[in-house]
Design brief:
The structure is a homodimer of 216-residue chains. Chain A is built from 7 helices and no strands. In chain A, 86% of the residues lie in helices and 0% in strands. Chain A has a single domain, classed as Methane Monooxygenase Hydroxylase, Chain G, domain 1, CATH 1.20.58.220. The first copy, chain A, is mostly helical. The N and C termini of chain A lie far apart (39 Å). In chain A, 44% of the residues are buried. Chains A and B meet through helix 3, helix 4, helix 6 and helix 7 of A and helix 3, helix 4, helix 6 and helix 7 of B. Chains A, B: InterPro entries: PhoU, PhoU-like_sf, PhoU_dom. Chains A, B: One of its GO terms (cellular component) is cytoplasm. Chains A, B: Belongs to the PhoU family. Chains A, B: Homodimer.
């Protein structure tokens, strides 16, 4: 029979996975808005971002109550402490999707992404969404082996980010400073989004095994 | 007479202030390296960044032990939970100073900062260092009124950041794409550095009063 506390942990883990689903949707919509210069989609990402803010705040309040009332130790305490960090990471991931959406809104009806980098951003969006989906599964199942996969999958995003940097810095970049600046910020937002999934992977490994893997 | 647990809290608060001093030094040196294209100073920021990594990791381990052994409640629990977030913020602030130093190193012996934006970056460096110094005091004294000052002081950095953006986006920007991209990233690093001091201010208010102020 599951104890009451174990049920609470399961429920809190489910809430982290649900928050992660919000970041999947936010990133999918922000990337769609970016690739198609879709103002409505961009505004939707911005409009619903309060849901993730509220979920992160609720999570922390529940964790706080459980820490105060139940005084967990060992694995359960690692889960609570790790979960506080994970909740903050998920919150920030949602914020980064909003940053992407805001650039789309600021430049509308212009397209932010010129043809030269359309493929890179298509792939960045796909990688970010896939990485967030995998993070959701890792949070749902709290499987340290699967979490380890999050740590290496991030290399693809780093390669894409470096490639993007090289394109805008090339002598023959034809789109001027404004486009290059937008693209630089967008690249940074995608990269940071994935960095947070790596952090979550490290935290899940820690909370299940007690050992925090080295930073990339 | 102070209890043993209160002594532990004081010691942990002192450690957060000490970590904050490391971020003050890192930001002062990174800004000096940037303004003077000083490679040695940039490399020093990068070389010593492991100290902050280690301090953040030690802090979390101590907090974890205290949570497990002492099961604190109310104010003391808020301090531990808030401190976990603050430690992560300080760690990230050090990482942002390292990012600035790495841009200086990548471009050396070129100056990253052209004359047009030298004054803005001089002010951004000064604001970031001052804000980190004030954060150290807030952590040392855990004074919620003083913490509230951190929340508004950040407006100066936001103004500088907007001004920087306007300069590189102007039609007559003479330094090309590469310089504009570097400046965009640097501006973002300074802004994020100060965002974390605001987060720390909010956390200190919460841990002393039990009420978390709204996000700016």
């Amino acid at each position: 029979m599951r104890t009451r506390f174990a049920e609470n942990i399961d429920s809190l883990a489910g809430d982290l996975a649900a928050m992660c689903r919000l970041t999947v949707t936010a990133m999918r919509e922000a990337s769609g808005a970016l690739l198609q210069a879709d103002l409505g989609l961009a505004e939707h990402v911005i409009d619903v971002s309060g849901e993730l803010d509220a979920a992160a705040s609720r999570w922390e309040q529940r964790a706080f109550s459980l820490l105060a009332l139940q005084a967990p130790v060992a694995h359960d305490l690692r889960f609570m402490v790790g979960g506080l960090h994970i909740s903050a990471d998920l919150h920030r991931m949602g914020g980064l999707a909003v940053h992407i959406a805001k650039i789309v809104r600021r430049r509308h009806p212009e397209h932010v992404v010129p043809d030269e980098v359309l493929e890179v951003f298509t792939r960045m969006g796909a990688v970010a969404v896939a990485q967030a989906e995998e993070t959701e599964q890792v949070l749902q199942h709290r499987d340290p082996e699967r979490a380890r996969g999050l740590l290496t999958a991030d290399d693809t995003m780093d390669d894409l980010h470096r490639g993007l940097f090289a394109i805008t810095q090339a002598e023959d970049w034809p789109h001027g400073v404004k486009a290059a600046v937008d693209i630089t910020l967008l690249g940074r937002f995608y990269e940071r989004f994935c960095d947070h999934t790596v952090e979550i992977g490290r935290r899940v490994i820690f909370l299940e095994t007690g050992v925090l893997p080295d930073q990339g």
